Amino acid sequence: MAHEEKIHLPSKAKPHTTIATRRICCCPAWLFLTILCLIIVIPTVTIPIVVVKLNARPQRPSFHVTSLKITQLNFTKTLEGPEHHLTNYLISKLNLTISVQNPNKDAVFFYDTITFDVFSWGFSVGSGYFGSSFVQENETSTTLQASISNTSEVVTKYSEDYEALDLLKQDVYKNGELHFKISLTTSVGVKMGGKLKNKVGFDICCPGIKAVAVDHASPPTSWELPQQNAVKCCILNAPFSRFKWG
After folding, report:
1. pLDDT for position 131
2. Cα–Cα dist 56/50, whole Å
3. Distance (Å, rounded) from C-alpha 198 to C-alpha 188?
4. Can the peptide bond before residue 61 be classed as cis, meaning omega within 30 degrees of 0?
5. Per-domain residue ranges for the chain?
6. I need a labelling partner for 95 at 20 to 30 A (CA). Which of 14, 36, 135, 209 fits?
7. CA distance 153 to 91
8. Phi, psi of 238 (to 5 degrees)
9. Residue 189 Cα distances to 165, 166, 186, 197, 232, angstroms
10. Predicted confidence (pLDDT) per residue in 127-180, tens digit
11. The domain made up of 58-242 is a member of CATH 2.60.40
């Protein structure tokens, strides 16, 4: 019987397939490590930037009219000039109190003297100022008071001026309620993180103020803003670009 010799052929090695498989297995690991690094690094870099930006954006101060008392408001007429022109004057005495708040935890405000003008139906009722310049520390409230006596000419050049004058006289002599708008003007600087920024001008408007008669005289002789009716003021031209107000 013939002996059959079995020939064993070597199996084909597949080294390339093994290497490719390893590379495929390693890719998810590298991707995972990359994403993990980004998750750790990005907050580490961005959080300080956000904190710095927030610190560079102080909240604006706020202003409120908390008290207004008018102890005199009446009219007088005089004949002036060679043509005996009739001129109306408005005589007033009033006490004004405002409150200024600094809501910031790490900002100090530096105020120049705050001046004010009081108007009723467009006519000047009085003007003055609150003391001198002052510094307002963080998270504090400052109360400012002023008392003024004023005599101002009531100018009536146009028909609407006469209409406004009639409304003002009705308030004084008939309605028992006076309508006011107060304008405040000042310059404010801010200090944050040891750095003092230059002062910039502020124009502040306090509209919609109503003072009611406090006596039963006819006409009334005094009016005041009810204590519970503090009026919030609006900053008209807050310098956002300079201070980056929040």
Report:
1. 92
2. 10
3. 8
4. no
5. 58-242
6. 135
7. 9
8. -55, 125
9. 39, 42, 10, 6, 22
10. 999 999 999 999 999 999 999 999 988 887 788 888 888 999 999 998 889 999
11. yes
